[in-house]
Amino acid sequence: MTMMATIVATTTHATTQHGVVLTDTDFAINNPQQVNVGRLLFYDKILSGNRNISCSTCHHPAFGTSDGLSLGVGEGGVGIGPARTTGEGASRIKKRVPRNAPALWNLGANKIKTLMHDGRISEDNIYGNRFNTPAQEWLPHGLESVLAAQALFPITSETEMAGSNVENEVAGAANDRIDNAWPIVAKRVRSIPAYASMLVEAFDSVEQAEDINITHIANALAAFIGEEFKSFDSPYDRWLAGTATALNAQQQQGLALFSGTAGCHSCHTGPLFSNQSFKALALPAFGPGRTRPFDPMARDVGRMGESDRLQDAYRFRVPMLRNVALTGPYGHNGAYPTLEKMIKHHLDPIASQAGWKTDQVNLPAASWLQATDFIVREDKLEMARQASHIDINLPPLDDTEISAIVAFLHALTGDQASAVDFEIPESVPSGLPVDKPDITSTVTGSM
User: Fold this and answer.
1) Of 267, 386, 396, 393, which Cα lies nearest the Cα of 335?
2) How far is the C-alpha of 179 from the C-alpha of 152, rounded, in Å?
3) Which of 144-148, 226-230, 282-286, 295-299 has the lowest mean pLDDT?
């Protein structure tokens, strides 16, 4: 057994003459043994209901820790990244994942207390288990971070990893009550001798295989994600450290605009480039949306779905921007394929929404779903409600200034992230296949 679990480091931001830098001290200290077993679990399809999809399928480092799609293709899909298809026959996808797969960069930072596009996973002891989540009081105790809490929910999602409740025991149990699924997944993992041995070594609370529960799996996943996807080795970081030539003239102009008159810094602030707030941008609507049980149509009310406060309608979490050039399409639903188009939407949301075309999205073909993919756009009242909720009012920019900001955003790309220099296992203890991306379809970002 190991002698330490994940430890939260005290954050003391380092500063230079140019501003605040991001360093290892801004992150939790992760146990290497937990990181190693978390790596295998991240790439192992054993966590999914039908044993056919892993965390890495939709969050692969080859695609910026996302998937290059507007809306994710989860359970029932085939392939990985932008080349992923919606499947065939009885096993094809039943629904689209309602939102864009968020990137995983720097999610282990100590400052992060809220996750998901609508913030439905947060640190809050309202239910006596340290976190406010859709599982409410049924969330297991022992989770070490908000990232570990978040790791539990794709496993129980029908569209993401669980599958239909008539297909497997995990989905069937989750359909009865969400916490019924997690012991089944934990039993699968601890029944594999290699995993049992590694988890015994990684956690003080585990003396034998029978002690392994879903919290150990979630904590290991969080340790891996938090450690593996730290990213602060970009040209911008070298510029902060004093290398004047790390940013070219156009990128320095973009930084000056970003931090000054363009107003980007009002939301994308600090070393993580997000103030972790929620803003309404009136992004073009499409897809099934993350609906509530009583919603009469396909729509997505954003933060209000979690908070039940009218003032939160259509607000979504301000994304962090490190490696953003690798993580398109952009927006909570991947409405825009390029950074340039996303910036232009910020400058004039109403005009941008009016001129938006459905061919801007990357939705893998699904003939049985296409009749409803854009049906929300036919609801004039819903479109008017979304257009009436806009939290930004930025000054106009010309094309040269927009190009400069895009160039600066590319300067936030880390060297390791750009090179996809990560340890991806050739095999995993379950013996299930590990997703291997087609290197010709990797996401490199677009201006």
Assistant:
1) 386
2) 10
3) 295-299
Residues in the chain: 447
HEC per residue, 243-307:
CHHHCCHHHHHHHHHHHCCCCHHHCCCCCCCCCCCEEECCCCCCCCCCCCCCCCCCCCCECHHHH
Query: Domains along the chain?
Result: 26-230+423-441 (1.10.760.10), 235-410 (1.10.760.10)
At 112 the three-state DSSP class reads coil
**Tell me, what's the pLDDT at 123?**
98
3-state secondary structure of 317: strand
Task: Tell me the mean pLDDT in the region 409-421.
Answer: 98
Any residues with CB less than 8 A from the CB of 32 and at least 6 apart, and which?
A: none
- pLDDT over 70 percentage in the chain: 94
CA distance 310 to 60: 36
The number of beta carbons lying within 10 Å of the beta carbon of residue 185 is 25
- The Cα 417–Cα 65 span in angstroms is 9
Q: Give the least confident one: 96-100, 195-199, 231-235, 443-447.
A: 443-447
DSSP code, position 7: B
